[in-house]
Amino acid sequence: MNDLFFWIVSIFGLFLSIFWTQVIYMSGPEPVKRKELPSISIIVPAWNEQKALPKTIDSLMVLDYPADKINVIIVNHGSTDNTKQVARNLLRKYKERKILLVNIKRKPGQSKASAMNVGLKYANGEFVGCMDADSVADKEALLNLIPFFSGKEVGAVISAIKVTNTKTMWGKLQRLEYLFAQLVRELMSKIDTLHVTPGALSLYRLDLIKRLGGFDENSLTEDYEIAMRLRYHGYTIKMAIKSISYTAVPDTFRGLWKQRVRWFRGFIETAVKYKKMFGNKKFGMMGVFQYPVNILTFITVISGFSIVSYELFSKGYNLAMELFALKAGVFDVLKMPSWFDILMHVNVNILFPMVLSFSIAIYIYHMAHKVSGEKWKYPLILLIYLFLYPILRSFHWITAVYKETFGVSKKW
Question: Taking the complete model, does pTM exceed 0.85, yes or no?
Answer without folding.
Answer: yes
